[in-house]
Write a structure and sequence with these properties.
Structural class: alpha/beta
Shape: globular
Order of helices and strands: EHEHHHEEHEHHEEHEHEHEEHEHHHHHE
Helix content: 25-40%
Strand content: 5-15%
Number of strands: 13
Radius of gyration: 24 Å
Strand order of the largest sheet: 5-12-11-8-10-9
Low-confidence stretches: 393-403, 416-480
Length: about 475
């Protein structure tokens, strides 16, 4: 189209354009080519903002002539300085007694990182070319939407096994990081996030060379009668779904471990033993037939509980047959979280929509659930929505999500109770107040993807003993 029919089409309508936000993706390149080939563009999405100013830069650069006139494609750092919230961090060794930045006795490092939030100028920029429309603005009377947090204590042996795995991984990881080996970081994070929900099987962690690192045993055993055992979160899920069934409501359950570490067969089994009809919507069901797949089973009375990965139903599906949603495992992507949580709160829904978030108390997923609220708060404020919900944190921790996650584990930091996070964030009493924190604006060393942020943030948190944060007043004001 771009090569053979430039200017032929007068209007391009791009749906779910947040999926084309990447700097270097095929979807992003295709969107940019079509925008240039058409006279006008209408971009549609329910989640345009990912919590940081840079999450908008490449998308707006493709869509907006005004942005292209003011910023080059390589000006991501300049964009972050103008529209983002930046924090200047200075790190130094304890023996900092020499003279100059680098000397025999002094070693100092200064860098700037981007935080969740944005300058008010970003909202002004979007208002010039955007329309924020809610379902209520279209005249639809929507039922109430509510979110509920659940922090569930682990069983005693489950807690002991998790603590043993955590200790093994942290000790090994610190030793390897000091040697400059970062290959264990991904396994470290994923194992601690996954094990509490999959402790019915043994967990063995190996490095990239296949070398043994850590292990914990399975907590169920067919030889001693413990195979039928329900762990605390499993019991919570069974109780919730049985209660909802008694009220005539179906439940949609979200899990992250649906691939090589699949836990959905066990969930189907324990729900079936409780007298509930459960099924799993897998990625193998084609995108064009998923909605029909669900409706056929609902119409035949074959579904009380539908289990799926949130990414499978992130876009394009209306699941109004399931007014109750249970996040058995929380997804840590803001776009996925916001889209999947509202799959049931769609036009045509007449029942109240309840969304439940369940995490094991004091675990990695508990820390992650409390930290992800930073981006949610920033996104909701930019959309003009009320900043409240089960995962919206009341106070800004001031660091990147994954860096905070790693640091909170290493330093054994206390984790905020999710019930406290449920209360509404108050900004000057009316949701429009300025933030009390100010950050200095300077060039970012690099704009990273989520994958590289896992490595960079975790390494920084593990290696550096202490951080001295210097705050200074600039024109940048956080939206929260």
């Amino acid at each position: 189209i771009a090569r053979r029919c430039p200017g032929f089409f007068k209007l391009l309508i791009g749906d779910e354009v947040h999926q084309s936000k990447g700097q270097s993706t095929d979807q992003g390149y295709a969107l940019g080519a079509l925008v240039r080939a058409c006279s006008n563009t209408l971009a549609l999405t329910g989640t345009i903002y990912g919590g940081r100013a840079t999450s908008l830069f490449y998308l707006l650069h493709r869509l907006s002539p005004q942005v292209r006139a003011r910023f080059k494609w390589s000006d991501g750092q300049k964009w972050a300085e103008r529209y983002g919230i930046l924090e200047k961090v200075m790190k130094r060794t304890e023996s900092d007694t020499g003279y100059g930045t680098y000397s025999g006795k002094r070693r100092r490092q200064t860098f700037v990182r981007e935080l969740p939030g944005a300058s008010p100028e970003l909202a002004a920029l979007l208002l010039d070319c955007s329309a924020f429309v809610n379902l209520s603005d279209l005249g639809f009377q929507m039922p109430p939407y509510r979110e509920y947090p659940h922090t569930i204590p682990m069983a005693e042996d489950q807690q002991e096994a998790y603590a043993a795995l955590e200790e093994q991984l942290i000790d090994e990881l610190k030793e390897r990081i000091q040697r400059g080996d970062r290959s264990l970081l991904a396994a470290y994070l994923q194992s601690l996030l996954a094990y509490p929900n999959s402790c019915f099987r043994a967990e063995v962690v190996e490095d990239s060379d296949g070398e043994f690192v850590a292990s914990v045993p399975a907590l169920v055993d067919s030889t001693n009668g413990s195979k039928a055992r329900l762990f605390p979160k499993e019991k919570w899920l069974v109780d919730l779904t049985k209660e909802e069934k008694s009220r005539g409501r179906r439940v949609l359950v979200y899990c992250r471990q649906t691939g090589t570490r699949d836990i959905t067969p066990r969930l189907v089994q324990i729900l079936g033993q409780a007298g509930l009809r459960a099924d799993v919507l897998k990625a193998s069901v084609g995108t064009q037939v998923r909605e029909d797949w669900v409706r056929r089973r609902v119409g035949k009375g074959l579904l009380d509980v539908l289990i799926t990965n949130p990414k499978i139903v992130e876009t394009g599906l209306d699941l109004i047959e399931f007014p109750t949603i249970a996040w058995y495992e929380i997804d840590y992507g803001i776009y996925t979280m916001m889209q999947a949580s509202r799959r049931s709160w769609r036009i045509g829904q007449v029942s109240e929509v309840d969304v439940h978030f369940a995490v094991y108390l004091g675990t990695m997923e508990h820390r992650a659930a409390s930290l992800v609220g930073q981006k949610l708060a920033a996104a909701l404020l930019l959309y003009g929505d009320s900043v409240e919900g089960a995962l919206v944190e009341q106070s800004d921790s001031g660091h990147g999500f994954l860096a905070d996650l790693a640091r909170s584990v290493i330093e054994r930091a206390e984790v905020t109770d999710l019930n406290q996070l449920f209360r509404q964030v108050s900004l000057g009493g009316n949701g429009n107040g300025n933030a009390s924190h100010e950050f200095i604006g300077a060039s970012l060393p690099a704009l990273t993807t989520d994958a590289t942020e896992i490595l960079a943030g975790s390494v920084t948190a593990l290696l550096e003993p202490r951080v001295l944060v210097n705050s200074a007043s600039t024109r940048q004001l956080a939206l929260f």
